[in-house]
Amino acid sequence: MQAVRMGNGLSLGVAVSLALAGGAIWSEPVKAAGFYIQEQSVSGLGRAFAGDAAIASDASTIFFNPAGMTYLSGPEVQVAVHLLVPKADARNSHSRATTPGTLGHPLPYEGGNGGNPYDPTPVPNFFYARPFNDQLWYGFGITAPFGLANTYDKDFFARYDSTETALKVINFQPSVAYQVNERFSVGFGLDIQYADATLKNAIPDPTRPGGPSVDTDGEVSLEADSWDYGFNLGVMFQPTQDTRLGVHYRQGIDHTLDGKARITAPNFSTPNPLLPAPGSISSEGGEAALHLPDILTLGLMHRLDDRWILLGQYSWFRWSNFDEIRVKFDTLRPDNVTEQNYKDAWAVSIGAEYRLDDRWTLRGGLQYDRTPTQDNFRTTRTPDGDRTWFSFGASYQRGPHWGVDLAYTYIDIGKESLRLTRPFFEDTPVATEVDINGTTRGHVHILAAALRYHF
Question: Region entry Disordered: which residue ranges (predicted)?
Answer without folding.
Answer: 93-115
